């Protein structure tokens, strides 16, 4: 399944399965047609109307928090943490995503990460979050996409704790290399999980 996950940098992934799913499109170089766009929150590097438009087809569905709604002409499904929906046959759960020791992503904003099922595999994308207690409740995750860069999100060290709580079959680090963080953060994350959880560091697709 990992070969179906393309990392386009930052928190942008293209996931190819029953449908074409993109997460938080940012700095999109090649126009494409997405079936589903998963938006975690309204910051410019996660909710970028300019980049979203490069991926829109008439049938594309945007799944997004309320404060992102109505800014792009497209089909929308508004979510908050705890919502479970099915879009285009894909099961999607919106889960909490927030900071605990900094103020960039307050819990009261109702911003989200997502757990969604593709080709029978449950994928979790964390969004911009710290290591939060809710992670202990995320069950049967096959692939976890976790931020590791610190500053606005978890550090590599905190992401290790998150991964151990979530216990995915595979963890993929993200949120480094464009605005904050570097591949060193990803490598540190992988090193500390060696022998515990398989970590795959993806190279950004051109």
UniProtKB/TrEMBL annotation:
<dbReference type="InterPro" id="IPR036866">
    <property type="entry name" value="RibonucZ/Hydroxyglut_hydro"/>
</dbReference>
<dbReference type="Pfam" id="PF13483">
    <property type="entry name" value="Lactamase_B_3"/>
</dbReference>
<protein>
    <submittedName>
        <fullName>MBL fold metallo-hydrolase</fullName>
    </submittedName>
</protein>
<dbReference type="InterPro" id="IPR050114">
    <property type="entry name" value="UPF0173_UPF0282_UlaG_hydrolase"/>
</dbReference>
